[in-house]
Design a protein that fits this description.
The protein is α/β, with parallel strands linked by helices. Helices cover 27% and strands 29% of the residues. It contains six helices and 14 strands. The strands form three sheets. The chain has a six-stranded mixed sheet, covered by helices on one side. A six-stranded mixed sheet has the order 7-8-9-10-13-14. The protein is globular. The termini are far apart. The structure holds zinc ion (ZN) (2 copies). The site of one zinc ion has 7 residues, from helix 2.
């Protein structure tokens, strides 16, 4: 059984998720820790909980989701898992950091590419990779069928959707991704987004103004 801990990091207020099981193993998704005290907070949490970090995943590689990749890589010795179409976004991220006044040192390690249908395993628990482009070209979500939740990155938010004006973004592609890949999941599926509060697939089908 997976437990979910959320941190809100950086001036961009990005949600970083730690998924951990009863064997004290964990997955770190989109480490957005920017400031030293945020990195310390992440480190201290794992230490306090006695968690061993096993996997580093990115839903996509906009700067706010990758600020802490290097720290996690160097601290826990993890290789980054991402979709191959996000590699170029990752390469662009430090330049946009400079442009937006949030310079940072990017991840320089190896890549482990993942794609639609891949199963990410942590002990007995499984997350299925769902490709959902539109906000970013290689955006993926992580779906846990057993526990009815999805880590949706910046595809779907509570009453909102991801922006499509960044490089590789496309509004129609994003709407198609949401309708064809997310809205086909059970209504009770909890949606843990890259920004903002928890929602469900059922609630967003009913109330999301961008999808009516
Ligand atoms: Zn994004
Ligand atoms: Zn974001």
């Amino acid at each position: 059984m997976l437990h979910i801990k959320k941190f809100v990091f950086s001036p961009i207020q990005e949600n970083t998720y730690i998924l951990y099981n009863e064997f004290k193993e964990c997955i770190i998704i989109d480490p957005g820790c920017y400031f030293d005290d945020e990195k310390q907070q992440l480190f201290d949490y794992l230490k306090k909980m006695g968690l061993v970090a096993k996997l580093l995943l990115n839903t996509h590689c906009h700067l706010d989701h990758v600020f802490g990749n290097k720290f996690v890589h160097e601290t826990f010795g993890l290789t980054l898992h991402l979709h191959k179409d996000e590699q170029k976004m990752l390469e662009l991220a430090p330049a946009s950091g400079l442009m937006w006044g949030v310079p940072f040192d990017s991840y320089q390690g190896a890549f482990n590419f993942i794609k639609e249908g891949d199963i990410i395993k942590l002990g007995e628990d499984e997350l299925r990779v769902i490709e959902a482009p539109g906000h970013s070209p290689g955006h993926i979500c992580f779906y846990c069928r057993q526990q009815h939740f999805i880590i949706s990155g910046d595809v779907l938010f509570q009453r909102s959707i991801g922006r499509t004006d960044l490089p590789g973004g496309n509004p129609q592609t994003l709407l198609n991704s949401i309708r064809q890949k997310l809205f086909v999941l059970p209504d009770e599926t909890k949606v843990y987004s890259g920004h903002g509060e928890l929602t469900t697939i059922g609630e967003e089908k009913l109330y999301n103004p961008f999808l009516n």
